[in-house]
Each structure stands twice: as C-alpha cells, then as structure tokens.
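Anyone up for a design puzzle?
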C-alpha cells in the first residue's frame, strides 16, 4: 500500500467539493442537433474550438436569464451578479482548475477564442494566478474531446449552475420526414435548487438549445 500526500491545491479542492456537494442539486438534459453548429464552425474565418462557441452561446443565453448568473449566500439572500464571468473547467498539470473568462457576454467570439488560447498555454505550464481563477459566476465543462457520451458535473458553490457537454455522436435523425445521418450532443444543466427552479432551468436550456441549433455564420 502506498500513499499520496495532497498538495495545498488538492486540500483546497477537497474542501470546495464538500461545500459544493452540500447544495441540493438537480439536472435537466437536452440533446442538441449539431448540424448548424458544424456548418457555422466551418465558415468561421478564425478556427475556434467548439468549447469557445459553447461559451459564447451560454454567456449570451445567461444574459436573457439573470437568475442563472446568481449565487447562494448562506441562507440569507441570493446574489444576482451583474457581470457574467464564465468559468471553464480544464485539466492541468496541477489537476482540475476553473479559470475564468471575465464579462464573457460582452466579448466577441474572437475575444473568447483569444482568452481560451491563453487558458491553454497556462494549462500546460500550470501557472494560473488567483486572479485567473477567481470571480466565476457560471461554469462550462466540456468533455466532448473524450469518449464521453454524457455526464453531470457538480455545481461549483456558490454558483447556481453548471453546464456539462458530451461528445458529438453520429446518430440517425428525422429530417423532412426521412431518416438521415446526423450528429448530436448531449448537454446537462446541473442547478442548485435553492437558487434556480425547474421551470426556469428548462426555459434556459431550451433557449440555449435553440441558439446552438440556429447558429448562422
């Protein structure tokens, strides 16, 4: 038997996970037809990642549903944040970290792409600052680059919600009354029920799905 000592970061993550798991969480699922998203991605002048497209779509949809950008405050109040600071779950040399793209809804797709490129560089070196990791109000976790069909992620307390994205998959779909080959991906929206109710979460996820399915370059 061997042991692995936890780093200071590991201990901090453990405490944060316990705090996060204490929240009463529930999940909504949606299946996204990726046809327009793929066509949109191909037409872009700058080749961004699908995660970048997702972040932009999520941020723009949150702007329509302010409660999705809220956080729980120890039973006394719910804080409605004015700024949408998007956390992005990434695997780094130091383990799982959530760097933050500030004011994501006010950024263009290219600006979010540049922020993601900077996150990639820092992920390799593992040299994120506390400023890079602080202030997030919502999180996107994308495992679509792996063989992951679908998953749910724990809400990062005190945030009210987190989006989890699985891989694009080849599936038969109905189009104009005929069965054709298509691609879909599953999205899970995990929420803190103290902050967000089921109907609001359903409306938000429906609006996000419609945004992604009607992307047009």
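Challenge accepted. My sequence:
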């Amino acid at each position: 038997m061997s042991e692995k000592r936890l780093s200071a970061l590991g201990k901090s993550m453990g405490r944060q996970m316990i705090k996060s798991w204490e929240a009463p969480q529930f999940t909504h699922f949606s299946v996204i037809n990726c046809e327009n998203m793929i066509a949109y991605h191909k037409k872009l002048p700058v080749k961004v990642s699908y995660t970048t497209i997702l972040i932009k779509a999520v941020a723009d949809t949150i702007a329509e549903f302010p409660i999705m950008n809220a956080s729980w405050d120890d039973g006394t109040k719910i804080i409605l944040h004015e700024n949408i600071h998007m956390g992005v779950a990434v695997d780094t040399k130091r383990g799982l970290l959530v760097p933050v793209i500030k004011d994501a809804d006010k950024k263009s797709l290219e600006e979010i792409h540049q922020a993601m490129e900077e996150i990639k560089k820092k992920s390799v070196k593992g040299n994120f600052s506390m400023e890079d990791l602080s202030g997030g109000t919502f999180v996107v976790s994308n495992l679509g680059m792996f063989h992951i069909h679908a998953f749910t992620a724990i809400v990062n307390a005190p945030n009210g919600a987190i989006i989890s994205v699985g891989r694009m998959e080849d599936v038969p779909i109905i189009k104009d009354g005929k069965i054709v080959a298509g691609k879909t991906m599953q999205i899970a929206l995990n929420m803190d029920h103290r902050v967000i109710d089921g109907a609001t979460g359903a409306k938000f996820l429906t609006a996000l799905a419609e945004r992604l399915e009607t992307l047009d370059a």
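A detail worth pointing out: Residues 109-125 form the longest helix (17 residues).
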